[in-house]
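Reply to dn_fold:

You asked what the input looked like. This is it:
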Amino acid sequence: MAVEFKDYYKTLGIARDASADDIKKAFRKLARLYHPDVAKDKKGAEAKFKEINEAHEVLSDADKRRKYDELGANWDQAGAGRRPGPSGAGSGEEEFHFGGTGFSDFFERFFGQGRGGGVDMDDILRGARRGRRPAGEPEYAERGSDIEGDILVTLHEALHGSMRSLSLRRTDPHRGETETETFKVRIPPGAQEGRRIRVPGKGSPGIGGGPEGDLYLRVRLAAHPDFQVRGVDLFHDLTVAPWEAVLGARVEVPTLSGTIKLTLPPGSNSGRQLRVRGQGLPRSPGGERGDFYVVVNIQVPEQITAEEREAWEKLARVSRFDARAKTGDAE
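and this is what came back:
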């Protein structure tokens, strides 16, 4: 089956020589418009966000970006870095294509981690030969191989769980037949990055009447414009004004469970972390949650009025604070 090339640079609206910071900024800008957790038109934004997230997944990873750039204009020609798809397509085995996982066939072919045993015709013939046994001897049967793929999971799904509709399209290269099966998959609360979700009986068919293999979906957490994930903990960058950092302030902060108010202590430096217990991701279904960290980032005004300049100059004259004094030095 033909695979459509994905221009990830075009998806994010950036140049091919864009820096890592450019990629991050472009993703955050688009994600704030199309992320399912923040978009007003959730249904209409979902497909767009999947494209944005996929582009970010590849271009924000130095190794994946290098491989993507090496594909070049001849990406679909022999020897251009092509590799089998999730099922080992092109090796004489059944070919599988997933729908509803959040990733394109292009991503699965070149950057996915999926794999599958499939059913090889030699195995079928061997099974048939073994099946020709004298009367009374048991018929040969072999369990089908397991297959794997990636599934994109939002942070809200990781927190609350969800039911997803997936489709699995199978193509038998020997018979030239294609069939599509649609089924439901449960995303459990606490689905962490890299976790495998087992779907029984959705793998390769068995041989000689043997049972089907299983489908394993590897969780890939969708990047979020407001939160970074580290294990089960969430981190949020809070931008504050210099006077808020010095004097302290009462600030509103978004979390996955809604907006909360925090007290920013006086004298907070950039990089200071404020911890909110139990506002991270679940460690397991029904288990305790990780923590939520607010990371302080002090931002100074780029332009000021004459009145503001006068106030800053007065502060500079009366303040005894020395930002470059070594720790322990006292005035």
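The mean pLDDT is 81.
Hope that clears it up.
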